[in-house]
# Entry
Amino acid sequence: MADISLDTQMGNFKFTNPILNAAGVRDADSTQLNTIINSWAGGVVTKSATMKPREGNPEPRMKGLPHGCINSMGLPNHGIDYYLDYAIKNEGKNNKQVILSIAGLSIDENIQLLKKIQDSDYQGLVEMNLSCPNIDGETQIAYDFDSVEAILNQAFEFFTKPLGIKLPPYLDFYQFDSIAKVLNKYPITYVNAINTIGNGLVVNPETEQTLIKPKGGFGGISGEYIKPTALANVRALRLRLNPEIKIIGTGGIHTGEDVFEHILCGADAVQIGTYFGFDDTPVFEKVTKELLAIMARKGYTSLDDFRGKLKVLD
Ligand code: RRO
# Structure
Protein backbone atom coordinates (compact mmCIF):
# COMPACT_ATOMS: atom_id res chain seq x y z
CA MET A 1 0.00 0.00 0.00
CA ALA A 2 3.08 2.19 -0.24
CA ASP A 3 1.73 3.83 -3.39
CA ILE A 4 -1.38 5.13 -1.63
CA SER A 5 -1.27 8.73 -0.41
CA LEU A 6 -3.49 10.04 2.36
CA ASP A 7 -2.21 13.60 1.89
CA THR A 8 -4.73 16.36 2.36
CA GLN A 9 -4.54 20.13 2.49
CA MET A 10 -6.40 22.87 4.35
CA GLY A 11 -5.28 26.36 3.44
CA ASN A 12 -1.48 26.29 3.44
CA PHE A 13 -1.40 23.36 5.83
CA LYS A 14 -0.53 19.89 4.66
CA PHE A 15 -1.53 16.74 6.52
CA THR A 16 -0.11 13.32 5.63
CA ASN A 17 -3.05 11.63 7.34
CA PRO A 18 -6.55 13.21 7.32
CA ILE A 19 -7.60 11.46 10.54
CA LEU A 20 -7.39 13.78 13.57
CA ASN A 21 -8.74 13.81 17.11
CA ALA A 22 -11.86 15.86 17.82
CA ALA A 23 -11.76 18.71 20.31
CA GLY A 24 -12.84 17.82 23.81
CA VAL A 25 -11.69 14.22 24.15
CA ARG A 26 -8.39 13.28 25.86
CA ASP A 27 -6.91 16.66 24.84
CA ALA A 28 -7.16 18.76 27.99
CA ASP A 29 -3.47 18.96 28.96
CA SER A 30 0.01 18.76 27.47
CA THR A 31 0.49 15.11 28.43
CA GLN A 32 -2.65 14.07 26.57
CA LEU A 33 -1.85 16.34 23.62
CA ASN A 34 1.69 14.89 23.35
CA THR A 35 0.21 11.39 23.32
CA ILE A 36 -1.87 12.38 20.30
CA ILE A 37 1.12 13.94 18.51
CA ASN A 38 3.06 10.71 19.04
CA SER A 39 0.24 8.52 17.69
CA TRP A 40 -0.98 7.79 14.16
CA ALA A 41 -3.27 10.84 14.29
CA GLY A 42 -2.58 13.26 11.44
CA GLY A 43 -2.54 16.29 13.74
CA VAL A 44 -3.61 17.40 17.19
CA VAL A 45 -6.64 19.43 18.23
CA THR A 46 -6.74 21.06 21.66
CA LYS A 47 -9.68 21.18 24.08
CA SER A 48 -11.71 24.29 23.32
CA ALA A 49 -10.32 27.16 25.36
CA THR A 50 -12.04 30.06 27.07
CA MET A 51 -10.32 33.26 28.25
CA LYS A 52 -10.11 31.97 31.84
CA PRO A 53 -9.71 28.38 33.09
CA ARG A 54 -13.01 26.62 33.86
CA GLU A 55 -13.93 23.68 36.08
CA GLY A 56 -16.90 22.77 33.90
CA ASN A 57 -20.24 21.28 34.98
CA PRO A 58 -20.87 19.07 38.04
CA GLU A 59 -20.35 15.30 37.73
CA PRO A 60 -21.57 12.90 36.50
CA ARG A 61 -21.32 14.82 33.22
CA MET A 62 -20.51 12.14 30.64
CA LYS A 63 -21.76 8.58 30.11
CA GLY A 64 -20.85 6.01 27.49
CA LEU A 65 -23.79 4.39 25.69
CA PRO A 66 -24.04 1.24 23.56
CA HIS A 67 -23.39 3.21 20.36
CA GLY A 68 -21.94 6.51 21.52
CA CYS A 69 -22.01 8.93 24.38
CA ILE A 70 -23.91 11.70 26.14
CA ASN A 71 -21.93 14.58 27.64
CA SER A 72 -22.45 17.87 29.37
CA MET A 73 -18.87 18.68 30.27
CA GLY A 74 -19.45 22.44 30.33
CA LEU A 75 -16.13 23.45 28.79
CA PRO A 76 -13.65 22.42 31.49
CA ASN A 77 -10.29 23.75 30.27
CA HIS A 78 -7.04 25.37 31.38
CA GLY A 79 -7.69 28.69 29.62
CA ILE A 80 -6.34 30.17 26.41
CA ASP A 81 -2.87 31.03 27.76
CA TYR A 82 -2.19 27.35 28.45
CA TYR A 83 -3.26 26.05 25.03
CA LEU A 84 -1.75 28.96 23.11
CA ASP A 85 1.59 28.31 24.76
CA TYR A 86 1.30 24.59 23.91
CA ALA A 87 0.32 25.35 20.31
CA ILE A 88 3.24 27.75 19.78
CA LYS A 89 5.75 25.26 21.18
CA ASN A 90 4.40 22.21 19.32
CA GLU A 91 3.22 23.49 15.95
CA GLY A 92 4.80 21.34 13.24
CA LYS A 93 6.26 18.80 15.69
CA ASN A 94 6.53 15.31 14.10
CA ASN A 95 5.44 17.13 10.92
CA LYS A 96 1.99 17.50 12.46
CA GLN A 97 -0.19 20.57 12.71
CA VAL A 98 -1.76 21.78 15.91
CA ILE A 99 -5.32 23.03 15.69
CA LEU A 100 -5.99 25.47 18.50
CA SER A 101 -9.67 25.25 19.47
CA ILE A 102 -11.39 28.20 21.14
CA ALA A 103 -14.94 28.60 22.44
CA GLY A 104 -15.90 31.99 23.82
CA LEU A 105 -19.16 32.07 25.75
CA SER A 106 -20.22 35.24 23.95
CA ILE A 107 -19.48 37.14 20.77
CA ASP A 108 -17.16 39.42 22.77
CA GLU A 109 -15.23 36.57 24.32
CA ASN A 110 -14.65 34.98 20.91
CA ILE A 111 -13.28 38.28 19.63
CA GLN A 112 -11.02 38.63 22.69
CA LEU A 113 -9.70 35.10 22.10
CA LEU A 114 -8.98 35.83 18.45
CA LYS A 115 -7.22 39.10 19.38
CA LYS A 116 -4.99 37.23 21.79
CA ILE A 117 -4.08 34.70 19.11
CA GLN A 118 -3.56 37.41 16.48
CA ASP A 119 -1.12 39.20 18.81
CA SER A 120 0.81 36.00 19.55
CA ASP A 121 3.54 34.14 17.65
CA TYR A 122 1.17 31.30 16.78
CA GLN A 123 0.86 30.85 13.02
CA GLY A 124 -1.12 27.60 12.92
CA LEU A 125 -4.77 26.72 12.44
CA VAL A 126 -7.45 27.99 14.81
CA GLU A 127 -10.84 26.32 15.21
CA MET A 128 -13.53 28.60 16.61
CA ASN A 129 -16.20 26.44 18.24
CA LEU A 130 -19.56 28.16 17.73
CA SER A 131 -21.55 25.11 18.76
CA CYS A 132 -21.03 24.09 22.39
CA PRO A 133 -24.45 22.83 23.56
CA ASN A 134 -23.72 22.50 27.27
CA ILE A 135 -23.57 25.91 28.91
CA ASP A 136 -26.68 26.55 30.98
CA GLY A 137 -28.49 29.63 29.76
CA GLU A 138 -26.42 30.06 26.57
CA THR A 139 -27.64 29.19 23.09
CA GLN A 140 -25.39 27.59 20.51
CA ILE A 141 -24.11 30.62 18.63
CA ALA A 142 -24.13 29.00 15.20
CA TYR A 143 -27.89 28.41 15.31
CA ASP A 144 -28.22 32.21 15.15
CA PHE A 145 -27.00 33.18 11.69
CA ASP A 146 -26.93 36.91 12.53
CA SER A 147 -24.59 36.23 15.46
CA VAL A 148 -22.27 34.19 13.24
CA GLU A 149 -22.17 37.06 10.80
CA ALA A 150 -21.52 39.57 13.59
CA ILE A 151 -18.57 37.52 14.90
CA LEU A 152 -17.05 36.97 11.46
CA ASN A 153 -17.52 40.63 10.52
CA GLN A 154 -15.62 41.75 13.60
CA ALA A 155 -13.08 38.95 13.39
CA PHE A 156 -11.95 39.55 9.84
CA GLU A 157 -11.37 43.24 10.55
CA PHE A 158 -8.14 42.20 12.30
CA PHE A 159 -7.66 38.43 12.19
CA THR A 160 -5.23 37.34 9.47
CA LYS A 161 -4.47 33.78 10.61
CA PRO A 162 -6.12 30.62 9.26
CA LEU A 163 -9.55 30.17 10.85
CA GLY A 164 -11.88 27.16 10.92
CA ILE A 165 -15.39 27.14 12.38
CA LYS A 166 -16.91 24.23 14.32
CA LEU A 167 -20.59 24.00 13.47
CA PRO A 168 -23.54 22.37 15.19
CA PRO A 169 -25.66 19.84 13.32
CA TYR A 170 -28.18 21.47 10.99
CA LEU A 171 -31.36 19.55 10.24
CA ASP A 172 -33.13 21.59 7.62
CA PHE A 173 -32.26 22.81 4.14
CA TYR A 174 -33.13 26.36 5.17
CA GLN A 175 -30.34 26.11 7.76
CA PHE A 176 -27.84 24.67 5.25
CA ASP A 177 -28.63 27.51 2.83
CA SER A 178 -28.50 30.21 5.51
CA ILE A 179 -25.21 29.22 7.14
CA ALA A 180 -23.50 28.70 3.77
CA LYS A 181 -24.62 32.15 2.65
CA VAL A 182 -22.97 33.73 5.69
CA LEU A 183 -19.78 31.63 5.61
CA ASN A 184 -19.21 32.19 1.89
CA LYS A 185 -18.69 35.93 2.56
CA TYR A 186 -15.51 35.32 4.55
CA PRO A 187 -12.01 33.87 3.97
CA ILE A 188 -12.62 30.90 6.25
CA THR A 189 -10.08 28.08 5.93
CA TYR A 190 -12.45 25.29 6.89
CA VAL A 191 -15.66 24.32 8.62
CA ASN A 192 -15.94 21.34 10.94
CA ALA A 193 -19.26 19.48 10.76
CA ILE A 194 -20.53 18.45 13.25
CA ASN A 195 -20.42 19.04 16.99
CA THR A 196 -22.54 16.72 19.13
CA ILE A 197 -26.30 16.76 18.59
CA GLY A 198 -27.19 19.08 21.43
CA ASN A 199 -29.64 18.56 24.26
CA GLY A 200 -30.46 14.91 23.83
CA LEU A 201 -31.85 13.02 26.81
CA VAL A 202 -30.95 9.47 27.80
CA VAL A 203 -32.86 7.81 30.62
CA ASN A 204 -32.27 4.76 32.79
CA PRO A 205 -35.63 2.95 32.96
CA GLU A 206 -34.56 0.88 36.00
CA THR A 207 -33.64 3.79 38.25
CA GLU A 208 -36.04 6.13 36.40
CA GLN A 209 -33.21 8.69 36.38
CA THR A 210 -31.26 10.73 33.90
CA LEU A 211 -27.70 9.53 33.23
CA ILE A 212 -25.94 12.85 33.75
CA LYS A 213 -26.45 15.65 36.26
CA PRO A 214 -26.06 19.04 34.50
CA LYS A 215 -29.00 20.77 32.83
CA GLY A 216 -31.55 18.26 34.11
CA GLY A 217 -29.85 15.44 32.21
CA PHE A 218 -29.81 17.03 28.75
CA GLY A 219 -26.52 16.68 26.88
CA GLY A 220 -24.70 16.40 23.57
CA ILE A 221 -25.13 13.07 21.77
CA SER A 222 -22.19 11.61 19.86
CA GLY A 223 -20.97 8.40 18.26
CA GLU A 224 -22.75 6.09 15.84
CA TYR A 225 -26.12 7.69 16.63
CA ILE A 226 -25.07 10.85 14.81
CA LYS A 227 -23.21 9.58 11.73
CA PRO A 228 -26.12 10.05 9.28
CA THR A 229 -26.58 13.63 10.50
CA ALA A 230 -22.84 14.28 10.23
CA LEU A 231 -22.67 12.89 6.69
CA ALA A 232 -25.68 14.98 5.68
CA ASN A 233 -24.03 18.14 7.02
CA VAL A 234 -20.72 17.42 5.27
CA ARG A 235 -22.52 16.72 2.00
CA ALA A 236 -24.95 19.65 2.23
CA LEU A 237 -22.17 22.10 3.09
CA ARG A 238 -19.85 20.78 0.36
CA LEU A 239 -22.62 21.43 -2.16
CA ARG A 240 -23.04 25.01 -0.92
CA LEU A 241 -19.69 26.37 0.28
CA ASN A 242 -17.03 28.00 -1.88
CA PRO A 243 -14.45 25.38 -2.91
CA GLU A 244 -11.73 27.31 -1.01
CA ILE A 245 -13.50 26.50 2.26
CA LYS A 246 -12.41 23.00 3.25
CA ILE A 247 -14.47 20.63 5.39
CA ILE A 248 -13.58 18.48 8.37
CA GLY A 249 -16.11 15.70 8.88
CA THR A 250 -16.76 14.71 12.48
CA GLY A 251 -19.39 12.34 13.80
CA GLY A 252 -19.68 8.62 14.35
CA ILE A 253 -16.28 7.59 13.03
CA HIS A 254 -14.81 4.36 14.34
CA THR A 255 -13.89 2.45 11.19
CA GLY A 256 -12.03 3.16 7.97
CA GLU A 257 -15.36 2.77 6.20
CA ASP A 258 -16.78 5.67 8.24
CA VAL A 259 -13.85 7.84 7.13
CA PHE A 260 -14.35 6.73 3.53
CA GLU A 261 -18.02 7.76 3.69
CA HIS A 262 -17.20 11.17 5.16
CA ILE A 263 -14.66 11.81 2.38
CA LEU A 264 -17.10 10.57 -0.26
CA CYS A 265 -19.53 13.22 1.05
CA GLY A 266 -16.85 15.88 0.65
CA ALA A 267 -14.67 15.90 3.77
CA ASP A 268 -11.03 16.97 3.37
CA ALA A 269 -10.13 15.63 6.81
CA VAL A 270 -12.02 13.91 9.63
CA GLN A 271 -11.99 13.92 13.41
CA ILE A 272 -12.65 11.11 15.86
CA GLY A 273 -14.08 12.04 19.25
CA THR A 274 -16.20 9.39 20.97
CA TYR A 275 -14.23 6.36 19.79
CA PHE A 276 -10.93 8.06 20.64
CA GLY A 277 -12.47 8.38 24.11
CA PHE A 278 -13.41 4.69 24.16
CA ASP A 279 -10.33 3.15 22.49
CA ASP A 280 -7.53 5.71 23.02
CA THR A 281 -4.80 6.30 20.38
CA PRO A 282 -4.92 2.77 18.86
CA VAL A 283 -8.11 3.91 17.12
CA PHE A 284 -6.05 6.16 14.81
CA GLU A 285 -3.82 3.30 13.61
CA LYS A 286 -6.79 0.92 13.23
CA VAL A 287 -8.94 3.36 11.28
CA THR A 288 -6.03 4.53 9.07
CA LYS A 289 -5.16 0.95 8.12
CA GLU A 290 -8.81 0.18 7.39
CA LEU A 291 -9.06 3.24 5.14
CA LEU A 292 -5.89 2.22 3.28
CA ALA A 293 -7.31 -1.29 2.78
CA ILE A 294 -10.55 0.09 1.30
CA MET A 295 -8.61 2.36 -1.05
CA ALA A 296 -6.36 -0.54 -2.11
CA ARG A 297 -9.39 -2.75 -2.82
CA LYS A 298 -11.00 -0.04 -4.92
CA GLY A 299 -7.78 0.91 -6.72
CA TYR A 300 -7.74 4.45 -5.32
CA THR A 301 -4.30 6.01 -4.76
CA SER A 302 -5.28 9.41 -3.34
CA LEU A 303 -8.20 10.98 -1.48
CA ASP A 304 -8.90 13.07 -4.59
CA ASP A 305 -9.97 9.88 -6.36
CA PHE A 306 -13.20 9.77 -4.35
CA ARG A 307 -13.53 12.97 -2.32
CA GLY A 308 -16.99 14.47 -2.81
CA LYS A 309 -17.83 11.94 -5.51
CA LEU A 310 -20.90 10.49 -3.83
CA LYS A 311 -23.36 9.21 -6.45
CA VAL A 312 -27.05 9.88 -6.04
CA LEU A 313 -29.75 7.66 -7.48
CA ASP A 314 -31.33 8.84 -10.75
O1 RRO B 1 -17.33 20.94 27.00
C1 RRO B 1 -18.43 20.56 26.54
O2 RRO B 1 -19.42 20.37 27.25
C2 RRO B 1 -18.64 20.36 25.10
C3 RRO B 1 -18.23 21.23 24.12
BR1 RRO B 1 -17.22 22.76 24.46
C4 RRO B 1 -18.59 21.01 22.77
O3 RRO B 1 -18.27 21.77 21.84
N1 RRO B 1 -19.35 19.92 22.51
C5 RRO B 1 -19.74 19.05 23.45
O4 RRO B 1 -20.42 18.08 23.16
N2 RRO B 1 -19.36 19.29 24.76
